[in-house]
C-alpha cells in the first residue's frame, strides 16, 4: 500500500532523530572541555540501561521491546550534555538512578511520568553536590590528543580526595557552571560591570565564547528537528519570545542594567531548554494553545530565577514547575465533541 | 480562483492516475445463483412475499416494506431455491435471512411504469414511487430515502449533493459523474421539485479539474446550481464534516441534518432516483470500484446486487488463493472478508485486494507518549489519547464525558500514531460497554417506576381500610377483628359472616370468663 501520510514516524525513530540532532552540541562541548564529556555520556548510557533492565525484571515486563524505544538513551545524552565536566563516576550513578528509576519507572513507565526525567536527575545532583555541579574545567585543554584522554579518565575514576581538587583551583578563578553567577555576584558589590572588564582575564574568554558556540550548535539541532516536524514550533517560539521580551524590558528600564538581552539568549542552557527539554511530548500539554501557555510560563520563570534568585541558571527548576502545571492547563482547555456547543 | 472549502484535521494522501478510471465496465455475466441477504431486524416487521419453488420475474419485490424499511427486488427471473436463516460473519448473534435464486437466463422483466413528465404528479405520489422501488442511501448507511424526503418537505432550503469520496482510492462516484451527468441533473430537479429547494450545491474535491470545468459550463445558465470545491483530504465524505466545512455550523447532537435546513444526498442515490422515477426501474444495479494494488489502478463495474464475490473474481481471473487477502471497503475503513460466497449488497462501495506477506515486520506496540498527533488529525475535535486511557482503565464516566459516542471510526488516529496502538479497537469495545450501561440505566428506571406504582397501590388500599374503619366506628360498633375482615374481603358470603360473628361472641365470652377467674 502506498499510503503517504506526513509525520508517520514510530517512537523509536523519533527518539533516534533527537539523538542525531544533539551530535553537533556534543562535538562543540568536546572541543571546549575535552574528552571527559564523551566518557560521561557513555557512563550515563551504560548505567541507565543497567538500571532499566533491573527494574523491568522487577516489574515483569518485556525487556526487549521496552529498551528498543531508545528513550532512556535520550535522557542520558541530555543529562550528560547539561552537567559540568567535574563529576566523578559515583555521582553519575546517583543521577542515572534518580532519572530512570524514580522519575520514570516508579510513576509507571514511559508515557506516564509527570516530570521530565533528565531534569529530575539534574536537580537532584544540583541540590546534593552544589560544589561539584558549580565548577568546570579550569585549563582549556587541546582536543584530539591522547594525553587529554588519560587525564580525563584519571579525573573521573581515580580522583582520590576532595583536597586535590580544591587546592589546584584558586578562589578567584573559581566560577559557576555558567558565567552568569559571576555577573550576579559582582552586581551586588557595585563593581564596574561591563563585558570588557570580565573578558580581560584569559579564563573568561573561553567561557563566554564556549557557551555562545554551544548554544548555537543546539539551535542548529533544533532547526533540524523542526525541519523533520518532530517537535512543534509553538513551545520554543513562545519560550524564547517571552524570555527575550522580558529581558529587553529589563535592559531598557531597570536602574542598573546588567547585560544585553542577546547575551541572555546565548548563555547558560536556554537553547537546550527551548529545543530539547521543554519540547518533551510526555510532560507537555497536547493542545496548541496549551503548548503556547506552557512555553511562556517556562520563559517567565527562567527570567525570574536568573535575575532575582540565588541560582544562576534556572532552567531545571522552571521546567519542573511548568510540568506541574500541565494537567491543570489540559483540564481547562478541553475541546468539545461534535455538535455539543449551544447554538 | 474560486474559494476552496476546508475542514480542520484530516490527512493528505498521494493522488492516483485517474485517466483510466473514467469508464464503467457495463458487462459482467450473470451467475447461475444469486444470494440476497435480508436483515432480521427489518424482517421482523415485514413479511416475505415469496415461497420456495416459486417463479420470479426480474424486478419483482421479494418482501413487503414498512415505515422504516424498503422492499427488496429480485435481480433476475428464475426459481427461488431456498429461504434460510444465516448468520453474518461479523456478528454471530444477529440472524439474517438468505434467499437464493436460480436464474433461467431469460431476463423477463415485469411491466415498468415510465413517466415522461414528472410535474404532472404530486410530490407525495412521487415519494410513494421512490419507496416502492426500494431506494436507500447508497453512501453507506442504508437510510431509506423516501423517509428522508417526507421529513424534508417545507423544512429545507438547500440541497447538498455529495460527490466526495471518503476513501482516497475509490473512484466510483467520479466515473458516474463523468458518464451520466445529464441524468444526474434531471435527478436533482426531481428532488428540488419534491421538497421545494432554493439552492443546489454540488460538492467536489479539488483534484478533479476536468469535471469541474465541464460542470461549470453546464451550470452557467441555471440559477439553482452552484459548485463548491473541497480540499483533497481524508475523510471528507461523511455528512457531518461536509456541513461543517461548507457552512461552519454543526449538527446538534441527536438530530439530523434536516433540522438545520440542509438535505444531503449521495450522487449515486440521485442517479437511482432518476432511474426509478422516469424509467421505472427498481434498484438492482450498483457501481463498485475494485482496487488492485499491484497495478495501482482502480476499475469500476456495474454489477447486479446479489452476485457472489467469488464468481465476480473468477470472471476477472484474479487469484483468490490463500496468498491474497480480500477486503470490503476502502483503504482506511476496511473489513476482512472471510466468506467468499457473500454477495454484493446495497451498502457496499468497493473491493480491495492485497497480497498476503509472510515476512511482515513485527509491529511493536509501544506505550502512548502523549505526542498529540492524533488530536491534531481528528476531524471532530475528540481527544483519542485520553479516550484510549479511559477505555483501557474501564473509566466509563470520563469516557462518556469526553463524548466517545461521537466517534465516526475513520481510523486516521490509528494510522498517524507513532507507537502503533490500534485505537479504534478500544473505542469499539468501549462503545459496546456504554450501550450496555445505557440499557441497564433504562431497566433501572422502569423497575423504579413499577416499584413506585406498587407503593401507591398499597397506600391507597391502606387508606381505604382506614376510611372504612372510621365509618364503622361512626356507627358505634364494637371494635373487633370481624369488621376489618369485612372491609377487606367483601366477597365473603353472609353465612360465613354470621358464623364468624357467633364464633367471635363465643371467644369474647370465654375471655371474659377467664379474666373473671383471674381476678377472683
What can you see in these coordinates?
The complex is a heterodimer of chains A (343) and B (520). By secondary structure, chain A is an all-alpha fold. Chain A has one domain (11-187, 207-333): Ammonium transporter fold, CATH 1.10.3430. Chain A has helices at 11-21, 23-33, 36-59, 63-67, 71-82, 89-105, 117-128, 130-133, 146-157, 162-168, 180-188, 195-198, 202-227, 234-253, 261-265, 270-277, 288-308, 315-332. The radius of gyration of chain A is 21 Å and the shape is globular. Chain B starts with a strand and ends with a helix. By secondary structure, chain B is of the alpha/beta class. Chain B has a six-stranded mixed beta sheet. In chain B, strands 1-9-8-7-10 form a five-stranded parallel beta sheet. Chain B has a domain at 31-106: OB fold (Dihydrolipoamide Acetyltransferase, E2P) (Beta Barrel). The interface between A and B is large, with 36 and 40 residues.
Give a quick rundown of the structure.
Helices cover 66% and strands 0% of the residues of chain A. Chain A is an all-alpha fold and 343 residues long. Chain A has one domain: Ammonium transporter fold (Orthogonal Bundle).
Tags for this model:
heterodimer; A: 343 residues; mainly alpha; Ammonium transporter fold; 18 helices; globular; B: 520 residues; alpha/beta; OB fold (Dihydrolipoamide Acetyltransferase, E2P); six-stranded mixed sheet; 16% strand; 4 iron, 4 sulfur cluster binding (chain B); translocase (chain B); repeat (chain B)
Amino acid at each position: 500500500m502506498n499510503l503517504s501520510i506526513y509525520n508517520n514516524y514510530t517512537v523509536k525513530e523519533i527518539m533516534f532523530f533527537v539523538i542525531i540532532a544533539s551530535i553537533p552540541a556534543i562535538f562543540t562541548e568536546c572541543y571546549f572541555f575535552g574528552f571527559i564529556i564523551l566518557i560521561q555520556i557513555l557512563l550515563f548510557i551504560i548505567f541507565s540501561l543497567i538500571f532499566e533492565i533491573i527494574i523491568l525484571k522487577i516489574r515483569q515486563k518485556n525487556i526487549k521491546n521496552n529498551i528498543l524505544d531508545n528513550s532512556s538513551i535520550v535522557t542520558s545524552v541530555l543529562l550528560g550534555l547539561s552537567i559540568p565536566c567535574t563529576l566523578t563516576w559515583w555521582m553519575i550513578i546517583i543521577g542515572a538512578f534518580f532519572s530512570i528509576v524514580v522519575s520514570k519507572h516508579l510513576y509507571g513507565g514511559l508515557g506516564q511520568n509527570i516530570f521530565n526525567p533528565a531534569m529530575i536527575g539534574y536537580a537532584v545532583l544540583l541540590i546534593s553536590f552544589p560544589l561539584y555541579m558549580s565548577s568546570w574545567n579550569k585549563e582549556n585543554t587541546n582536543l584530539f590528543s591522547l594525553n587529554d584522554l588519560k587525564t580525563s579518565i584519571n579525573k573521573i575514576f581515580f580522583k582520590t580526595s576532595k583536597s586535590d581538587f580544591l587546592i589546584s583551583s584558586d578562589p578567584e578563578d573559581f566560577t559557576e557552571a555558567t558565567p552568569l553567577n559571576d555577573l550576579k555576584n559582582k552586581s551586588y558589590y557595585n563593581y564596574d560591570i561591563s563585558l570588557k572588564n570580565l573578558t580581560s582575564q584569559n579564563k573568561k574568554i573561553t567561557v563566554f565564547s564556549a557557551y555562545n558556540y554551544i548554544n548555537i550548535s543546539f539551535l542548529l539541532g533544533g532547526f533540524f528537528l523542526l525541519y523533520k516536524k518532530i517537535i512543534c514550533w509553538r513551545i520554543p517560539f513562545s519560550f524564547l519570545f517571552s524570555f527575550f521580551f522580558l529581558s529587553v524590558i529589563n535592559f531598557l528600564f531597570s536602574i542598573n542594567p546588567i547585560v544585553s538581552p542577546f547575551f541572555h539568549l546565548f548563555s547558560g542552557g536556554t537553547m537546550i531548554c527551548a529545543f530539547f527539554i521543554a519540547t518533551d511530548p510526555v510532560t507537555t500539554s497536547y493542545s496548541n494553545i496549551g503548548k503556547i501557555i506552557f512555553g511562556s510560563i517556562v520563559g517567565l520563570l527562567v527570567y525570574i530565577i536568573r535575575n532575582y534568585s540565588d541560582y544562576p541558571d534556572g532552567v531545571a527548576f522552571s521546567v519542573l514547575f511548568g510540568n506541574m502545571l500541565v494537567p491543570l492547563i489540559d483540564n481547562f482547555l478541553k475541546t468539545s465533541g461534535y455538535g455539543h456547543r449551544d447554538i | 480562483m474560486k474559494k476552496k472549502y476546508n475542514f480542520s484535521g484530516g490527512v493528505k494522501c498521494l493522488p492516483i492516475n485517474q485517466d483510466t478510471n473514467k469508464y464503467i465496465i457495463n458487462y459482467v455475466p450473470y451467475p447461475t445463483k444469486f444470494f440476497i441477504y435480508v436483515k432480521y431486524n427489518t424482517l421482523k416487521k415485514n413479511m416475505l412475499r415469496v415461497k420456495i419453488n416459486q417463479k420470479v420475474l426480474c424486478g419483482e419485490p421479494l418482501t413487503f416494506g414498512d415505515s422504516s424499511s424498503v422492499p427488496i427486488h429480485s435481480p433476475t427471473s428464475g426459481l427461488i431455491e431456498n429461504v434460510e436463516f444465516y448468520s453474518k460473519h461479523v456478528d454471530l448473534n444477529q440472524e439474517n435471512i438468505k434467499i437464493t435464486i436460480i436464474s433461467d437466463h431469460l431476463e423477463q422483466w415485469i411491466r415498468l411504469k415510465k413517466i415522461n413528465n414528472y410535474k404532472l404528479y404530486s410530490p407525495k405520489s412521487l415519494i410513494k414511487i421512490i419507496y416502492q422501488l426500494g431506494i436507500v442511501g447508497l453512501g453507506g448507511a442504508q437510510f431509506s430515502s423516501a423517509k428522508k424526503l417526507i421529513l424534508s418537505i417545507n423544512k429545507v432550503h438547500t440541497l447538498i449533493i455529495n460527490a466526495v469520496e471518503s476513501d482516497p482510492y475509490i473512484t466510483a462516484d467520479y466515473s458516474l459523474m463523468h458518464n451520466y451527468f445529464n441524468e444526474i441533473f434531471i435527478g436533482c430537479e426531481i428532488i428540488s421539485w419534491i421538497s421545494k429547494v432554493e439552492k443546489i450545491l454540488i460538492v467536489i474535491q479539488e483534484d478533479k479539474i476536468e469535471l469541474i470545468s465541464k460542470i461549470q459550463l453546464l451550470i452557467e445558465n441555471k440559477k439553482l446550481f452552484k459548485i463548491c470545491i473541497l480540499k483533497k483530504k481524508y475523510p471528507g465524505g461523511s455528512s457531518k464534516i461536509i456541513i461543517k466545512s461548507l457552512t461552519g455550523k454543526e449538527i446538534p447532537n441527536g438530530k439530523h441534518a434536516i433540522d438545520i435546513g440542509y438535505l444531503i444526498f449521495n450522487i449515486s442515490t440521485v442517479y437511482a432516483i432518476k432511474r426509478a422515477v422516469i424509467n421505472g426501474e427498481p434498484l438492482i444495479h450498483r457501481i463498485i470500484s475494485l482496487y488492485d494494488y499491484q497495478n495501482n489502478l482502480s476499475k469500476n463495474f456495474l454489477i447486479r446486487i446479489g452476485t457472489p464475490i467469488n464468481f465476480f473474481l473468477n470472471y476477472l481471473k484474479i487469484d483468490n488463493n490463500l496468498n491474497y487477502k480480500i477486503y470490503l471497503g476502502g483503504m482506511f475503513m476496511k473489513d476482512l472478508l472471510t466468506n467468499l460466497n457473500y454477495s454484493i449488497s446495497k451498502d457496499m462501495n468497493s473491493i480491495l485486494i492485497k497480497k498476503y506477506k509472510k515476512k511482515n515486520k513485527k509491529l511493536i506496540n509501544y506505550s502512548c507518549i502523549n505526542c498529540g498527533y492524533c488530536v491534531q488529525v481528528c476531524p471532530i475535535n475528540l481527544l483519542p489519547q485520553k479516550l484510549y486511557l479511559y477505555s483501557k482503565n474501564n473509566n466509563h464516566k470520563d469516557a462518556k464525558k469526553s463524548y466517545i459516542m461521537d466517534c465516526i471510526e475513520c481510523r486516521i488516529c490509528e494510522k498517524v500514531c507513532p507507537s502503533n496502538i490500534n485505537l479504534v479497537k478500544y473505542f469499539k469495545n468501549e462503545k459496546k460497554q456504554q450501550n450496555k450501561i445505557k440499557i441497564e440505566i433504562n431497566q433501572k428506571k422502569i423497575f423504579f417506576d413499577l416499584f413506585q406504582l406498587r407503593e401507591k397501590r398499597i397506600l391507597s388500599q391502606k387508606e381505604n381500610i382506614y376510611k372504612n374503619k372510621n365509618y364503622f366506628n361512626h356507627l358505634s360498633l364494637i371494635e373487633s377483628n370481624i369488621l376489618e375482615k369485612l372491609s377487606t374481603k367483601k366477597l365473603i358470603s353472609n353465612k360465613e359472616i354470621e358464623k364468624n360473628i357467633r364464633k367471635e361472641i363465643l371467644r369474647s365470652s370465654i375471655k371474659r370468663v377467664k379474666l373473671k377467674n383471674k381476678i377472683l
